[in-house]
Amino acid sequence: MSLAGVALAAGRGERMRPLTDAVPKVLMPLAGATLLDLALDRLAPAAGRGPEHLAVNAHYRACDVTAHVGAQAHVSVEEPRALGTAGALVQLLPWLDGRDVLLTNADVYQPAGLAQLLGASNGTGWDGERCRLLVTPAEPGRRADFVLPDGTGCRYVGSCLLPWTAVRDLRATPSGLYEVLWRDLDAARRLDLVRTDEVSIDCGTPGDYLAANLHASGGHDVVGAGAVVEGTIERCVVWPGAYVGPDEHLRDAVRAGDRDHPVTVSATVGA
Length: 271
Known about the structure:
Helix content is 25%, strand content 29%. It is built from nine helices and 18 strands. The chain has helices spanning 19-22, 35-47, 62-69, 84-91, 93-96, 115-118, 164-167, 177-187, 206-217, and strands at residues 3-8, 29-30, 33-34, 54-58, 74-77, 100-105, 108-109, 132-137, 146-147, 153-162, 192-195, 201-202, 222-223, 228-229, 232-238, 243-244, 249-257, 262-266. A hairpin with a 4-residue loop joins strand 17 and strand 18 (262-266). The longest helix is centred in the N-terminal third of the chain and has 13 residues, at 35-47. The radius of gyration is 19 Å and the shape is globular.
């Protein structure tokens, strides 16, 4: 099975502002790396490494994403507007060159990796013909994206396998995969849904981003390289180079910026 790994990294991260005013969401630090680095690491065991095997789409602050990726992956810059998940793949069609796609959202924290999606951990290998989505049971009160055969409502957690035969027919217009592909396949019961109970956190809000950091650190505060903490912090993430003054007490927060221009975002887990 020949797989091309694609990390979706074009979004700005509006709900993460003002943190994402200065840095793309996918370049926010997590577990000593960035969200994008972790996404490429998820893809590499199945797809391989390097620009022949891995691709990243970029739009917001595309120059920053391109510079960070370097020779790790092929970068597809979307201009003048972002193309959505389906449109991103259409722009990548020449690079994909007939290969099936292992796709992951770069802003998702999935420390267990993608072995379960690929079938390595549960004995159900992918047949290469159906779209295969990684899903987890939907939380009470949250709308389900799909329904498993046992009636359990579930939500998509940002990683999937797509056969070339499905990708090649997508249209070159900004669009999402659910709207142009998965919705009809789901209605025809032609989606392969793989349930996981492993940790999967969409870092779309400050609270979820904090939760991912606390999980990665074992519940400890996260202080980046070169950061200075003279005050006190509790359940916090302090970005590399940031500063917490002696009279400050931060709780459930993300501190970015520097000594002269601190940026603080409240980040209640679960909010």
